[in-house]
Write a structure and sequence with these properties.
about 0% strand, single chain, about 85% helix, globular
Length: about 550
């Protein structure tokens, strides 16, 4: 029988230096365990949210019928602009707050960290109001000549009012290594959003056969409904932990005295780089949005309907599905920031090196097989969510490979911010943006839709190389440990791809490629076969133990793997 942990008093708990747990009975643990636990929470919340955000597409596309591609293109045009304004409104504050709260907690200055959060609340409310107003009233100037985009931006502006404060509170909890509130609120937010989207789309298009532009605007207004749901969940968690937070604040060392003005300066100084890095993928998507149509019109005489369809295929259709995979990396990235900030505060260079190595390995272990698996089932996946399309399948397959590059950027850019290299991370991203611009025109002229993906992949690959080179020079990355495990991960991932791909091709020899129901069957069977192969190999070789620790021994025992 497992030994029960001893009960401890508040004073005993404060003997631990670093982020204190808010949950009753939870103890501080090693950085690898904290990263793993945080990653599990954030991955679960993020993956379920992304799945919900993708599954709604199936009925949504059916109800929009012949307007589905036009609706997807309009949705994406509006959402890309909204995403940029949202990131500006959030101003990178959540990650900055998580980093700084963790920094002060490592010094046992809990009261100061909580005061920082309260000052951040005022800042987030102001930025939310300002950015929402600019988005709403400036919509006619941002629509790039498409009046339908104006309608969508007006619907999206309301969400900008709430989401900054909600995101700030998530960052505060993350500073205490508490990823549960963020994960649960993220899931509830997506559930409420998708629920409103489906009900409104069904009533407008499915029942009343109404205006598809109005239906899209209501689908985007759902972001406001979702934000309300997520905000209420975070409010409940805050009330739940209020007593514990008060106890920590009362027993702080209180050696540091920081003025209100200094706190605001600190928040802004930390937040600005987070704005740019946090909006990196969105910035590249905006480059595509404002250049793709112009380049294609220069190359040939295409109708707006054809261009919207092409744009929807790579910017919305494929992007929606690969973001499920990229969300895995995002979850790990969010977890690593406060942990690295603690190590940086302690001056623990060896600890930083270890955490960076562990983060890259954990990313590789999860991301590579997921991306290759998505590429293997690209045809049935695209058919399931949209319709049978050779072009759409090719774009999704290419996007799946590119997801590894984007996911790696998400993780290592967060590492740069966690160790205080914000300005340098922005500088490297600027170089990558220049590369994107240089390659964009010839790539789109030669490869049309895939050309935009090529320029994005090359741009982010260049940034990744610069960041990894810098981290290795400053702190050292244990490439021997990475290569030792990465070779096995790659081998098992390629095996996963081959099994899933063969299963897909074999099943389609007897199944109807146009059927959505049969596409679902193919995806499930191929994913299960490929996934079991990867699980078996990683457990058998003990690679999983290196990533997840000794807890996988139970799984190995249940599966009778020796």
């Amino acid at each position: 029988m497992a030994e029960q942990p001893k009960e401890s008093t508040e004073e005993e708990e404060l003997d631990y230096i670093g982020s204190q747990p808010l949950r009753a009975g939870k103890k501080t643990t090693s950085s690898q365990s904290q990263m793993l636990e945080g990653s599990i929470w954030m991955t679960a919340g993020s993956i379920f949210s992304r799945i919900l955000g993708a599954v709604y597409i199936i009925p949504w596309v059916i109800w929009f019928g012949i307007y589905s591609n036009q609706a997807n293109a309009l949705y994406t045009k509006g959402y890309n602009i909204y995403s940029f304004f949202l990131i500006a409104a959030i101003a990178g504050i959540p990650s900055a707050i998580a980093k700084q709260v963790s920094h002060y907690n490592a010094m046992n200055e809990f009261a100061l960290g909580q005061r920082l959060y309260k000052r951040g609340l005022l800042l987030s409310i102001v930025t939310g109001i300002v950015c929402a107003a600019i988005l709403f009233f400036g919509a006619p100037l941002l629509n790039d000549g498409d009046p339908n985009v104006t309608v969508v931006l007006h619907a999206l502006a309301w969400a900008v009012l709430i989401i900054p404060t909600m995101s700030l509170t998530r960052g505060f909890f993350q500073g205490y290594q508490e990823m549960g509130p963020s994960a649960v609120s993220q899931f509830v937010e997506q559930l409420a959003r998708v629920g409103y989207m489906l009900v409104s789309a069904y009533l407008i298009m499915g029942v009343h056969k109404g205006d598809w532009v109005f239906a899209v605007s209501q689908s985007t207004f759902a972001a406001f409904i979702g934000a309300l749901g997520g905000f209420l969940v975070l409010g409940w968690y805050f009330l739940k932990y209020r007593k514990r937070l008060g106890t920590l604040a009362k027993q702080s060392k209180n050696d540091l005295v920081v003025s209100t003005g200094s706190l605001y300066k600190e928040i802004i100084a930390q937040a600005v780089p987070f704005i740019i890095i946090g909006s990196a993928i969105t910035i590249f998507q905006l480059i595509d949005q404002y250049t793709f149509f112009r380049i294609m019109n220069f190359v040939g005489n295409y109708s707006s309907e054809v261009l919207n369809t092409m744009y929807a295929m790579f910017s919305f259709n494929a992007n929606k599905l690969i973001m499920i995979v990229i969300s895995l990396a995002s979850a790990m990235a969010v977890t690593s920031v406060p942990l690295l900030s603690e190590a940086k505060t302690r001056g623990d260079c060896e600890g930083i090196s270890k955490q960076v190595t562990d983060a890259i390995l954990l990313f590789s272990f999860v991301m590579i097989p997921s991306a290759l698996g998505m590429a293997a089932v690209a045809q049935p996946a695209y058919t399931l969510f949209y319709h049978l399309s050779a072009v759409g399948t090719s774009i999704l397959e290419f996007s799946s490979y590119m997801a590894i590059i984007l996911g790696l950027f998400t993780v290592i850019s967060a590492i740069m911010q966690g160790i205080g290299e914000n300005v340098l991370a922005v500088k490297y991203f600027a170089y990558g943006t220049i590369v994107k611009f240089i390659i964009q025109i010839p790539a789109v002229m030669l490869f049309s839709a895939i050309g935009s993906l090529i320029s994005t992949g090359v741009g982010f690959a260049f940034v990744n190389w610069l960041i990894l080179r810098h981290i290795n020079r400053e702190y050292g990355i244990n490439y021997f440990k990475i290569n030792q495990n990465l070779s096995k991960i790659l081998l098992y991932s390629i095996g996963t791809f081959i099994i899933a791909w063969l299963a897909t091709k074999g099943l389609y020899m007897v199944m109807d490629p146009n059927s959505k129901v049969q596409a679902l069957v193919v995806v499930v069977i191929a994913a299960m076969l490929g996934g079991f192969f990867y699980l078996y190999c990683s457990l058998k070789s003990r690679v999983a133990d290196q990533m997840l620790g000794g807890r996988v021994a139970r799984i190995r025992s249940l599966l009778h793997i020796r």
